[in-house]
Amino acid sequence: MAQEKEMSRVTEWRIRMADGSSEALAPEAGLACRAWLALKGLIMGLVLKVCNFFRKAWDLGQNEPKKVIHCLKVGMALTVVSLFYYMRPLYEGMGGNAMWAVMTVVVVFENTVGATICKSLNRICGTFVAGSLAIGIHWIVSQSGKEFEPFINGISVFLLASAVTFSRFIPSVKKRFDYGAMIFILTFSLVAVSGYRVDKLLEMANNRVYTIIIGTALCIMITMIIYPIWAGEELYMLITRNMDKLAYSLDGCVGEYFNESGSSSEGDKESAKKLLGYKCVLTSKATEEAMANFARWEPAHGRFNFRHPWKQYLKIGASMRACAYCIDALDGCVNSENEVPELIKKHMSNIALKVSSESSRVIKELAKTMKTMKKSSTIDYLVGEMNNAVLELQEDLKSLPTLFINPQPLQGADCPEKKNTGAVALMDIMPLVTLVSLLIEIATRIEGLVNAVEELAEMGEYKSVADEKNQNQPVSKTNVPDEHKEGV
Amino acid sequence: MAQEKEMSRVTEWRIRMADGSSEALAPEAGLACRAWLALKGLIMGLVLKVCNFFRKAWDLGQNEPKKVIHCLKVGMALTVVSLFYYMRPLYEGMGGNAMWAVMTVVVVFENTVGATICKSLNRICGTFVAGSLAIGIHWIVSQSGKEFEPFINGISVFLLASAVTFSRFIPSVKKRFDYGAMIFILTFSLVAVSGYRVDKLLEMANNRVYTIIIGTALCIMITMIIYPIWAGEELYMLITRNMDKLAYSLDGCVGEYFNESGSSSEGDKESAKKLLGYKCVLTSKATEEAMANFARWEPAHGRFNFRHPWKQYLKIGASMRACAYCIDALDGCVNSENEVPELIKKHMSNIALKVSSESSRVIKELAKTMKTMKKSSTIDYLVGEMNNAVLELQEDLKSLPTLFINPQPLQGADCPEKKNTGAVALMDIMPLVTLVSLLIEIATRIEGLVNAVEELAEMGEYKSVADEKNQNQPVSKTNVPDEHKEGV
């Protein structure tokens, strides 16, 4: 506004044109002023944008210090590998090929150990196989005579590049050897093509594999020794975190419906955010798959063996998503406008809350099983409790209202609505019935989740808590710890 | 079996050991035979595996010829770029840097045009910016004296590599410039490091940028001219295909529940597979995002402008997923064991089927809108019909059974179940009520989908069918085409 006012105060010169229009002659000062203001606006906007960017980056760094450490590790690896160039004796050994070590570090160094190892092995194998093949073909070609060389080379590059590119579309190759296939094409083309010029082909190939091995070894060492980020552990954390979120969401959604949010001490916004935790479960499929893919390349670390059943985590994730779909539907249905009569709602609230809390207890116990990596001694008991609560809920529903079929409305839809005193339309309790039905469905799906986690416990050879106790003292026959004996 | 028999007929020599156990001395022939059989088994297994692999690859190629064509394009691009090496005049111009053209082609050539352009521009910009910066720093360093060079270079590599690696974690950078950032680090390190040795730095950098531009230009040309695969078009096809699947699944699931599958002529397996079409919607999030990301780099093609609102497709995809969650929950709930009394089921079947068919008609109309890229003149009418059907369903539910609250069970759960003649327990009709409730929820979510598609129509400046008709003949006021006037 201030800018406009300023402009209007400036005297304006106008030229009247032949066609009746007029053109303003902006005074020099005005133009300069306008340009200055525009420039100032532009610069301010740019500065603001840059500031915003850095603020975001700063927040990211504060929230996830792991990422900052990874960046420093990359910088370190690159600086170390640069030494090959600066140290003359090493340089003379490697020749110009030291460039390949730098390139390897840049391309191969990934966020997680698994990804780095996967790319490293892919790079080494791809280079080695393609190099050998290319040199072999080069040798055969050199026997047959110089004049055919370009043709044979061209055809072999065309055929192999097409075939290997195609193999990258095959899921089993794509999952594990995608990068290796690309490196294969790259190396084969380079060697085949430069074989025409470079005489010391074998030496060059040798040097190149050598530098690549140095680069990858450096990457793997740095990524594994300095504050390692394991893909397996990330996957494991993601799954257990999502399990907690799922349990909280389930509890929260049902609680909220019955107006017993239970977390009055916390901020409402925080609570609402937590209720939507199940959405994280819905969106983490891609991350889970990537992590599981990299985790299988990792050596034994922490509590995980080399052949830890990472694939099973994907099954667990899928089971969790199946639950989350139902919670999403539940969230939509219970928020509809139909108001359930207070009396019925109150009558059902206890048992519905019991089902949801028993269900989320099962999920929490599963999360605990995963966190401690010990077979739970109470999971069967808790699943039983959950199923009992479901049965109780069904019984309650059975005993609550008997429904009299009024034969008249079955004939046609134009029958006038008859309201008896004390009668409740089915319509009115629909959200409640839906909630109950979805709760039962969720309980069924949780059993699938329980199975998935139990399979993991079998595969991963988790010890049971009872086994550990056995070594110290005899346990009671029921296997139910004391805290559960008195009931909830 | 035959193998075992054969083995048992051979005479066996045994040595009795000191500890009482005996060790068989297998005759030479037996050993050779066994080894031969083992080898045969191994080879057969390997052959079988390889055959399997090729069969899979063949199926993939037959199902998606686009991928085969892409592979041939890659082979062609590589063969063409190899010419730089073989043609002596070109080679002399480029020097050994022609290698960079080969490398560029291998790394940059992607399946879709968008991805190729994205990587190409990233590569060019990353190389150019990093090269300029590195040369600038090199010049400053060279002024300050040789002895500090390694230190300054090392520090600058460390700092820049760390910072740029960090920037790759920032979502907005990661989405668009991830590859460019990597190339920046690569180029900067290479130039900074080799600047210490190579004297003709500027010329080398110049040549490198030059060859990279040649490589990328070749890739972009080949990918755009020969049977182009546009990321935008792939995204568009994916979304419309998923919409059809969603409509079919919704129709099918509800139809199946009421035992009116409607597709008796088709194979049951085929039909069941189609019913699960909504699962494709659930799993296509990652693909949608990747495609939308690449589509924005593509120039105008086919019916899409340069600034086609690709982001809106993600919103449409999200809306579809919201519907699919409900269908998944519905699929679970209606398959529960509770049998709804035939009488009630039959009574509700007509109207429930109507709601589902009206809903799926809306989805199909949206799919048609997207396919024809013309604003639908009937969508408002269809949404109205859907909402009417929902209202009718609710009315039916209201009028059907009046529910008498039995005050007794409200006191305690131990009350014995009382069954009046002709009474139906709420429990028994629960699946039906849930189905109805979820259908209503799905209808609500479909409205969200309608809004998303309408926004797209606005943004993409779709013409309306009415506009086109206006140019030929006056339309009726209601805007409802004849086929809809008589009702369904």
Automatic annotation (TrEMBL), chains A, B:
Membrane-crossing segments per the record: 68-86, 98-117, 124-145, 177-197, 209-231
Please classify the protein's predominant subcellular localization into one broad category.
membrane
Q: Would you tell me the Gene Ontology cellular component terms?
A: membrane
Where does it live in the cell? Membrane
What InterPro entries does the entry give? ALMT
Q: Which UniProt keywords apply?
A: Ion channel, Ion transport, Membrane, Transmembrane, Transmembrane helix, Transport
Q: Does the keyword Membrane apply?
A: yes
Q: Keyword Phosphoprotein, does the record have it?
A: no
Region (Disordered) residue ranges read 464-488
GO biological process terms held by the UniProt record:
malate transport; monoatomic ion transmembrane transport
Recorded topology in the membrane: Multi-pass membrane protein
Coiled-coil residues are none
Q: Which family does it belong to?
A: Belongs to the aromatic acid exporter (TC 2.A.85) family.
Q: What is this protein called?
A: Putative aluminum-activated malate transporter
Question: What is the organism field in this record?
Answer: Rosa chinensis
